[in-house]
Amino acid sequence: MDTIIETINVTKSFDGHEAVSDVSLKVSKNELKSIIGPNGAGKTTLFNLLSGQLKPTAGEVLLSGEHVTSLSPTYRTRKGIGRSFQITNVFPNLTCFENVRLAVQSKEGVYYNMLSHFTSHKKINDLAHEVLSTVLLDSKAEELAKNLAHGEQRKLEIAMLLALDTEVLLLDEPTAGMSIEEVPKILEVIKQIKETQNRTILLIEHKMDMVLDLSDSITVMFNGALLADGKPEEIMANEQVQTAYLGGLYNESS
Amino acid sequence: MDAIINITINGLATGMLIFLLAAGLTLIFGLMDVLNFAHGALFLWGAYAGIWVFTQTDSYLLGVFAAVIIGILLGYLLERYIILPVYGNHIRQIMITLGAMLVLGELVKVVWGPNVMIANTPAILSGSWEFSGILIIKYRLFVIFVGLLVFLGLLFLLNRTKLGLVVRAGVMDKEMVQALGINIRKVFLGVFILGAAMAGLAGILLGPYTGVVYAEMGLEFGLLAFIVVIIGGMGSVVGSAVAALLVGILGSFASYYLPDISLAVNMLLMLIVLIFKPSGLMGTKEAVK
Amino acid sequence: MSLLKVHNIDTNIDQYHILQGVSFEANQGEVTVLLGRNGAGKTTTLRSIMGLNPVRSGTISFKNKEIQTMATHNIANEGIGYVPEDQRIFSGLTVEENLKVAMKKKDEQTQKRFEYVLVLFPDLKKLLYKKGGYLSGGQKQMLSIARAYVNNCELLLIDEPSKGLAPIIVEKVMESILDMKDKTTVVLVEQNFIMASSIGDKFYILDDGKTVRNGKMRELKEDEALRRQYLGIA
Amino acid sequence: MNKSTIALIVLVIGLILLPFIQDSRSILILMTQIFILGVFAMSYNLLLGYTGIISFGHAMFFGIGAYSIGLIMRYYEPTYLYFLFAVVTTLILTAIVSYLVGLLTLRLHSHFFAMFTFAIAGLFLVAAEKWRSLTLGNDGITFKIPDFFKDRVIFYLLSLGLLVLAYLFFRRFTQSPFGKVLQAIRENEKRVESLGYRVFHYKIIANVISGMIAGLAGIFYAVSLRFVNTSVFSTEITLDALMMTIIGGVGTLFGPILGSAIVQFAQYSLMDLAKVHWIFERWVILFGIIYIVVVMFFPSGIVGTVKTWFTRRNKQILGKKKPEGKKSMESSKADAMKNILKGEVDG
To answer: Which residues cross the membrane (chain D) (predicted)?
Structure first.
């Protein structure tokens, strides 16, 4: 299978502490790969390196074989790496609809249009509404984002990512902070993307059931380094993974 | 040669005056994240009240005392009633402290009239010494001496006392200081009042140095102090001292050798520093996003 | 005897309703562990106890005194020490100065505590005059714990001490927390379950801003289904 | 066409008729000043309110405009052609200066940017003061203008025209895709970046547009006085723009205009009152008090505060009417109403 996103020995240190150390990772096209590991293992930092929020101290990031290490988040998004954030990161004083529309607008390449009124962009508006209904937020379209509940903001966050319609989707704990009832709906959305579209998804998630259910492959990170990478069943069987992350509990309980 | 020495002394004295203003401002900014445009008003009131008391009583010492007291008093009122409601919002801080600046600046005219106020040099400090052709004006030396004293006192306070330790810690992380059981609000007020007292002192020192004081100098010197804070780096007292002396001396040389651009020197200096070191000479706070 | 009693607290951060009914108790001399996924509200719970994110409703009593409306510094002075996530060392101050900020009284007890932390963390003793910013992650963690302890606290709130530390350092930190246990009560937020289970006496699981389960740590070790459901680990 | 548009049209017609209804020269001049400074404040609001940039050097663009017209009218001839030439010069100069300033500084944090622009405006002020052979320094220069502009009523109408055009432009602009990106930058810069926008470009373009419009306001200002001196570069001019914007309402279209009206009118009437009691000679005190009061009690400006009232009232009505459960026709009608209302004050 074609590799779409790849890191070669990326390292990121903050004040001498290596948050991500020497990670080489390959993600195949149209695969859904989950990244698991305890807090502080460097998962979000790795995401930041992939999406360009951070520049690696050493190593390279490649997208479809092209070096993107020095590109800003702006250009990586344009080249097809979109991400959602772990901490909700929306535009609080714009409406839900406007939030999503900004993403659609970017995807459609309407960057510097200063004088045409938004109503003349029917396509953009329609697309934005469509995405909002995908994440079940259409009834909140005209609410200001800051007035949404936490779980709804998470959904909005995902909606913006979907609207960008990028080839690679980086999802950083999409269901964190959502109520138990909302989680299945979001899972459904992720599943849908996986099944119906040709998208590569990287997912950080703590809920193991969800990870096992969705993933084509799983990468385990521990203390900034790659511990294991493989099919879900391989990972579950991996002794090292069990001691480091799953907590050696299998050993104890078995 | 004598010109150079005189210009340097002149610059040092001006620099010290600016430092007295900037030190308070930089601490207030570093610790409280407050942009205080009314700082110049404290200076102005210090000048007017101090000189008035000095002329009335003929005691310079009483004048200095009055200037510091009025600084403390106004500082207290400003912090409690003007700045307290606007913590955490720069735009509102700028606006409300500018409002306070306008009010206090005009009140000076109400109390002492709209004309400039003449300030004499106290007898004991007037006159000058001459050493082999070099004329040294006593009062300038006095200003330098006082500035130096305050600078050293401030350094001692910050580096050698418990209070200073708390202030320095607060500049770095005020929430953590609170979580260690320290009432940061009291520390804020203390620092604000200290800054206000120094501004008042600068005011009375300036009077005999320039000979006259006028209401507009509040905003003028307030902005100058801001420039110095930016050049020196927000939150750094030593940075402010270095920057203030730099501004003072450069300004003094420029007005002698290049009078046409002397007014622009501070601005140019600030531009250069901002371009090459946006956080200022000794600043620690992040300036670039 | 319960030293800290948190009853049904709700906390908002800006518009976000983060805590929606957290209750737990911490007994004297025990280590109480708060567990839960990212975003479950563990950090906010500690911050609410410290008054850094004031509660909207509910009560927090410490030594039978309600503290939920008190200012942060007063809460700290009641005897609660806070070791925040990411340590929050004063990076421009030396190790000694970091500790001095916290040592408000000059009494014998404070001095004793000061000596104790230097024995407990020999690293800190060696680095006493070094700036906090130059310490390694593990040393910062030790300093942060030491700083809270010398503040004469009877209760330590420790937020994810293992985060970003190498396993061997984590062990060291854990040992020191165990060592402090008979001197001070500990409430620990931890995601590293091995660590949490090795030093915890009691656990509470937070989910979605609510406490959903609690019990003895021993029970959780045996209940795989529960761990899977709320912690995402098996 | 909604209510707010109708109200605005009525207002504009009223203003057009004003000079024919009453003939007080000073009122006419006052209104003209309100219009001109309103445009200036609107240009400032584009930065402060819509993009989240605090500039302390906005006077430099105003001053460039004022000096362009002044110098060209004085040293060439006061003809229409040269007038046009001055306008073009202003637009080009302000565009270049705002582009360069933006390039150098827009990566800095807010207050550093503020101080940087403050310094550059300061340099312009010093240049104007020191280049005496050209500008006559603080004494300033008087100049002639084409006869057409000399008529107070005509100039009043022209200024009103400029204001209306600027208003329509900003209304369009802030609702455009570009304008929405600016507002998103104000809200969360990093996120805009990760949506694939080049934030820096947007900020620079906003800075340039704002600077050019400020330059136009500067031209009108100088023409209204037929005199220009260094005060057009002074910090007070920038602060005036800041105050007008904040008093009226940051990030609202109509706010700066209202702010301009309030500030100018207050200045005018307070100065007038000086004859009544000596305390009014110190009208700046009252002025300062207004600033303080506005910040304390109207933190989001007058338009902003009124807007909040309306929304709150509307929400209450909504809350009573809205049935439980599914979204009803009624509530969507109310939603639509809310939008109109938002449009009313927002543009």
So the answer is: 6-21, 28-47, 53-73, 80-102, 108-128, 153-170, 204-229, 241-263, 283-306
Q: Span A3-246: which CATH code? A: 3.40.50.300
Contact B216, B204 (CB under 8 A): no
Q: Chain A residues with CB inside 8 Å of D193's CB?
A: 72-74, 77
3-state secondary structure of B283: coil
How far is Cα A224 from Cα A216, in angstroms, rounded to an integer?
22
* pLDDT bucket at B250, cuts 50 / 70 / 90: very high
Nearest chain B CA: its distance from D82 CA (Å): 31
Yes or no, beta carbons of D190 and A53 under 8 Å apart: yes
Contact status, residue A28 vs residue A4, Cβ threshold 8 Å? yes
Q: Do chains B and C touch (3 or more CB pairs under 8 A)?
A: yes
Total count of domains within chain D: 1
ipTM of the complex, rounded to two decimals: 0.73
Residue in D316, D294, D198 with CA at minimum distance from that of residue D244: D294
In-domain check, residue B168: yes
Nearest in space to B207 (alpha carbons), one of B69, B23, B66, B4: B66
Chain A residue closest in CA terms to D185? A91
Q: Report pLDDT digits (tens) over B95-130.
A: 888 889 989 998 998 899 888 888 888 888 888 888
Q: Tell me the three-class secondary structure of D68-129, residue by residue.
A: HHHHHHHHCCCCHHHHHHHHHHHHHHHHHHHHHHHHHHCCECHHHHHHHHHHHHHHHHHHHH
Q: Give the pLDDT confidence of B196-220 residue by residue, as tens digits.
A: 999 999 999 999 988 899 988 888 8
Q: Which domain holds residue D168?
A: 24-274
Residues of D in contact with B82 (CB under 8 A): 292
Domain boundaries, chain A: 3-246
Which of D112, D126, D239 is nearest residue B264 as measured by Cβ atoms?
D126
All residues of chain A having their beta carbon less than 8 Å from the beta carbon of residue D327 are 139
The CA distance from C160 to the nearest CA of chain A, in Å, is 9
Distance from CA of A8 to the nearest CA of C (A): 22
- Whether C76 sits inside 8 A of B181 (CB atoms) is yes
State the residue for tokens 């307290």: B84
Residue with tokens 């070790």: C221
D86 falls within a domain: yes
Tokens of C4: 């800290």
Residue B70 lies in a domain: yes
